[in-house]
């Protein structure tokens, strides 16, 4: 019985720091820029997600109103160009950088 209690105490002691260290983090523009160079599919998914979120929700204001003729690859290409062309801004959250670009190109 003592051994079971000691084993349980050891497991709990080791598990506690893991919970203390876990927190949600968001990627910044530098991380997205690197992702776009090494994992195109993941990069595209992130950018498409931001663009879709801007049209599907009322936040952030102002929203984006992309014309139906704008295809997903076009949005990705423009977002990647913006990341490459603005290295001084890439410390900002990636969502904000992409949102600023999309809203700037296709405001409502």
Automatic annotation (TrEMBL):
This is Rap1a immunity protein domain-containing protein. The lineage of its organism: Bacteria, Pseudomonadati, Pseudomonadota, Alphaproteobacteria, Hyphomicrobiales. Residues 28-108 form the Rap1a immunity protein domain. InterPro entries: Rap1a (IPR041238). Coiled coil: none annotated. Keywords: Signal. The keyword Signal applies. Residues 1-20 form the signal peptide.
């Amino acid at each position: 019985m003592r051994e079971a209690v000691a084993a349980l105490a050891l497991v709990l002691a080791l598990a506690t720091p893991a919970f203390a260290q876990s927190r949600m983090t968001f990627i910044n523009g530098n991380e997205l820029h690197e992702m776009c160079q090494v994992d195109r599919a993941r990069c595209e998914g992130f950018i498409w997600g931001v663009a879709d979120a801007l049209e599907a929700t009322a936040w952030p204001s102002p929203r984006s109103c992309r014309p139906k003729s704008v295809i997903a690859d076009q949005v990705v290409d423009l977002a990647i160009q913006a990341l490459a062309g603005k290295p001084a801004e890439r410390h900002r959250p990636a969502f904000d950088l992409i949102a600023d670009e999309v809203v700037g190109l296709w405001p409502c």
